[in-house]
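Q: How would the structure tokens look for this protein?
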Amino acid sequence: MAAGRVRTRPMRSIHRHSISVRSFYKKLKQMAKVSKKRGREFNFSRFANRHIALKLAYDGRSFTGLATQGGGEGDNSVEKHLFEALEKVKLIAGRSGAKFSRAGRTDKGVSAFGQVVALQARSAFRPGTKPEAMPLHPSDAIVEVNEVGERTQEKREIDYCGLLNRVLPEAIRVLAWAPVTEDFSARFSAESRSYRYFFSARGLDLSAMDEAARLLIGSHDFRNFCKMDVVNVRNFRRRVYRAAVRLVGHAEALAPGNSAPRMAVFEVEGNAFLWHMVRCIMQVLTYVGRGVEQPHIVSELLDVELRPKKPHYPMAEDTGLVLHDCGYGHRLDFDFEARNLAHLQAHLTRRYEIHAVEASKAADQLRALAGAKLRVEHVKAWLNEAVDFAIRKGLPDRAGQRLKERLLAAVDGEGAPALDWSTVLLLLHAENVQIDHAGHLSLLSCRHTPLLEREAGPAYEEKIRLLGEKRRNEYEEKLELSRKGQECEEDGEEGAARTRDKAFFQKMLKQGKMGQPDLHDAK
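A: Here is the predicted structure in token form.
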């Protein structure tokens, strides 16, 4: 037995060595194959290019804005991720030759469901294939013909949506694509943009807000409803086609006097929008909803001859704002694809359910709080402290002291040694007082200086005078460019080029911008 074991050991050793060598060479061969593949560059010249438009949706909370910020380490823009995806799936060789344009430039925190971008992308077809011979939809098939006129095979266009959605972050989705002409610009070809701003309707008079919103309809100078970009914008007139405030849903009551927030939306559609225009409008509408401004404040602020200076007020938060759609009339017709919509349906349903579960958990916890018992002396101590804090933050002292007296008397009037938290909320509600997001008392009708009585910023002409040297040079360069475009004489070939420049600059001037995307809304 011992001798037998001695004889088999060398054979096993040789066998193991043989396997090891074969494994090594197999691995070496795989590495060489991968290395060769990595070293082989994609040959874009084997394919035709075509100008296409993409319809995008993205959650603005996840990104630093739409426009790329140079592509550096801190750049987490939608465009950075989009171009990385386009290059990864070999639809473009790089941004420089992509002829990229965007409909609207949304800032950090702002989402989109109808953003449109246009670019030159690789097609599935051979070079020289005319655009009109290419399919208009992913499911359309075109019969290819070889050099001698023989029918070869049925070929479909690249599934742009599916290809990009597989490599994009989940917070960015491509909804649809459409072929467009070479002169199409996602920005300049757009006839309208529409925004939706979602907000909690708690404590707000929606009918008053809707009345105020409808005063925006028409052509107006919106300099008092935006952040002035005096270097790039000289014309603040915009046309609003539609504006309204409506309720979008109801939630069950959580406790007496403290119902779950009803959700509402402010919808506005116009030809173009100024920097932060929607968020500024929304803030003014919120003042109207709280009852501290009347609906006619909108008309007052639109009268720039009477009110050439914008009063100081903050903007509404960014998270509720969505670029909902961009309209192009007959120039653009997105054709949706069922397979892509099925994936989007699953993605949005999953996202909705996650947030609905979180909302249900929070609602359940709020219901549990309603029954919590508090000793009366603790309630009084907290009310004293909370009203004193409100006074320090700007509530007039006399009004604060009267409020404190009424609240303390109401607590005593309950005649019990302990109160439910829901009872405390009812007492606050009776005095038109809410608890804000920081846990402090918020008086809906107090601590508001009317907009027309506030300190105002400099007028447009003053802002021009106050420009620093660098910004003034930029302003004068763009002013000169616009003048050249308007004053050129049209003669010969050079005249034709100048005519194109003139039309371009006139279009830019009409939209109020000189070289920057017209839509910035909103930080």
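The two ends are 84 Å apart (CA to CA).

The chain has a mean pLDDT of 82.

Upvote if useful.
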